[in-house]
Amino acid sequence: MARKVFYSFHFNEDNWRAGQVRNIGAFEGDKPVNGNKWEEVKEKSDEVIKAWIDKNLVDKSCLVVLIGENTSSRKWVKYEINKAWELKKGVCGIYINKLSDSSGKQSKKGSNPLASYIPIFESDFSTSSYVYDDIKNNIESLVENAIKIRSQYK
């Protein structure tokens, strides 16, 4: 079954890294979020932002939180996690701090915004290209595991 996922991340800091994960192409409809669309939506009211998130989550199998240095402090990431759980979606996380940004820089490891029973992937590699390959080789099983775990909770 082709899975659809919603990626949650700190847009300003991690959009480049998130784009790398989306370019893996492991899931149906994987394509980077149009920056202009998010910029347009985020300038509106909280209700408009929530409606946009809700609409984009509804047909997804899983929420994948791409964890960068400051992801855990983001208001909308927290909302997306809670909303996905409420909608009975799988939820998982991937540390992306060791992927290079557009300047070739990695970032510090951030705090995990997810509960202890949520599956998290963190590569043992330190070189960005190896981290990318490690994520690529593990992302599908991570999502399947998250969906399986979520089905155990009512």
Provide the helix percentage: 40-55%
Annotation, overall tally of beta strands: 4
Unreliable parts = none
**Second CATH tier, the architecture:** 3-Layer(aba) Sandwich
Mean pLDDT: 91
Helical run tally: 5
| Intertermini distance | 23 Å
In terms of quaternary structure, what is this? Answer: single chain
Q: Give the overall form.
A: globular
Order of helices and strands: EHHHEHEEH
Briefly note the CATH topology name: Rossmann fold
Please identify the top-level CATH class. Answer: Alpha Beta
Compute the CA-based radius of gyration: 15 Å
Report on the biggest sheet.
4 strands, parallel
* Share of β-strand residues: 5-15%
Number of domains: 1
User: Which class of secondary structure composition applies to the elements?
Assistant: alpha/beta
Side by side, the strands of the main sheet go: 1-2-3-4
Fold and architecture overview:
Helix 3 crosses helix 4. It contains 5 helices and 4 strands; from the N terminus they run βαααβαββα. By secondary structure, it is of the alpha/beta class. It has helices spanning 11-22, 35-42, 46-57, 75-86, 128-151; strands at 5-8, 62-67, 90-95, 120-121. It has a 4-stranded parallel sheet. The protein has one domain: 3-Layer(aba) Sandwich (Rossmann fold). The two termini are 23 Å apart.
What key phrases describe this protein's structure?
154 residues, alpha/beta, four-stranded parallel beta sheet, ThsB_TIR-like_sf, ThsB__TIR-like_domain, MTH538 TIR-like domain
List the helices and strands and how they pair.
Elements: E1 5-8, H1 11-22, H2 35-42, H3 46-57, E2 62-67, H4 75-86, E3 90-95, E4 120-121, H5 128-151
Helix pairs in contact: 3-4
